[in-house]
Specification:
- The protein is of the alpha+beta class.
- The chain contains four helices and three strands.
- It has helices at 17-21, 51-76, 78-89, 93-101; strands spanning 109-114, 117-124, 128-135.
- Strands 1-2-3 form a three-stranded antiparallel sheet.
- Strand 2 and strand 3 (128-135) form a beta hairpin.
- Helix 3 runs antiparallel to helix 4 (93-101).
- The radius of gyration is 30 Å and the shape is flat.
């Protein structure tokens, strides 16, 4: 015997013939959308506004320049790279933040590290952010 996990019939063409025979004229069952839409606007999303998006794109350029200062210092200076890794592995938060700030970064940043990597999040005015993940 076959058991249907869906006991409710959704469409008129799925009704058995004997159910449809009780009606004098065939009726169409109305179909409901899962998410109603506005008939005057075919999109359920608000109208597109690019102002904030373009502002974020301009601000991310500044973040990328700041990130370049940091990664350039790490790639050029062996001593700086050594000091940063050593401070992170010793969980010396103040020294890690001091070293990162000494690269010339002028924006807000947050650093997190593990025994084998460091993650530096640069943020600008709450509009955008850039994450730098470096492994050692």
């Amino acid at each position: 015997m076959y058991y249907s996990p869906y006991p409710y019939v959704l469409y008129a063409n799925h009704y058995p013939q004997w159910v449809m025979a009780n009606h004098s004229s065939p009726t169409q069952i109305s179909r409901q959308l899962a998410m109603p839409t506005n008939p005057t606007n075919s999109s359920t999303f608000p109208p597109v506004n690019t102002h904030k998006f373009k502002t974020s794109a301009k601000e991310i350029q500044n973040l990328m320049q700041q990130a370049h200062l940091l990664v350039d210092k790490i790639s050029v200076s062996e001593q700086f790279a050594h000091d940063l890794i050593n401070a992170a592995q010793l969980s010396n938060n103040t020294e890690v933040d001091r070293l990162i700030a000494s690269t010339g970064i002028t924006i807000k940043f947050d650093s997190k590290y593990t025994p084998d990597s460091i993650r530096i999040n640069l943020t600008q005015n709450g509009c955008c952010g850039l994450s730098i993940i470096l492994n050692w």
